[in-house]
């Protein structure tokens, strides 16, 4: 079993990513594999989970909330972005890049998506394109 924090979840598409506590790469999670009601999935919540090998790389299954903690009350903030509306946060950038990669190339594995996303986020940060 692994422990990690849900760092993103798109309820309209039914998937997200968990960042393992041990510092490994983020793990893909899909609503059909979790064993929980979707309304229990809140960004920042800590889960215990098993990791299996999916079609696109490692994925989390059999999630259990750690410590019976309540889900954060505040919804995940999504800004309505317009041209020149200012820099993105790193978390917003990662979420948007993940969605773009999944739309652009469904054949990418979770590991490939994470590698590309992390390199693009690092590049954007080095150029001052992200909020600090």
UniProtKB/TrEMBL annotation:
Domain CSD: 1-65
Disordered: annotated segments: 58-90
Highest taxon of the lineage: Bacteria
Any matching Pfam family: CSD
Descriptive protein name: Putative cold-shock DNA-binding protein
Keywords of the record: DNA-binding
A GO MF label: DNA binding
Organism name: Nocardia mexicana
